[in-house]
Prior knowledge:
By secondary structure, the chain is an all-alpha fold. It has 4 helices and no strands. The protein has helices spanning 28-42, 45-64, 77-139, 143-166. The relative contact order is 0.05.
Amino acid sequence: MAEPRPRARLDTPKETRRTLVRRPSYDSDAFGIFAEQFARFMGTARFLIYMTLFVIAWVFWNLAVPGESSFDDYPFIFLTLMLSLQASYAAPLILLAQNRQEQRDKVVAEQDRQANARAHADMEFLAREVASLRMAVGEVATRDFLRSELRALLSDLDERAQDGLREGGQAHPGDDETGPATA
């Protein structure tokens, strides 16, 4: 009797299959850097000028040079093949460069989002602090309030001193209406 096969778990990865043919390995970062440099170069006026000069030289050589030196006759099939081959390699390289740029943009956008969240939290904290300071300052006596209270006390003292003089006290020499003279 055969043993029952163990049940596969969904939370563990399957074993990788072994192949007879070994896949070529490459450094994806180095290849990506090459793709970006190539895409940048293809997007320049210099590249367009070089390609234009190359095609003009190709056509001129094959039309003007007589005999066996001409290697691609009038419909320029070989030139068409070369330009198609160049385009078939250029398109994936440009797409690879765009994908790498998109990944960098995502990282930058995430960093910006985190910085914005921190700044927002900081602004909320500062707003709460300013509100608490306003409440605390509202409870603290201001300079103008203290001056008005001292003036009121001084006028009360002056009134009491005047009332004391009227009730029978004599004014001392050097006293004036604002109060006793200070030594």
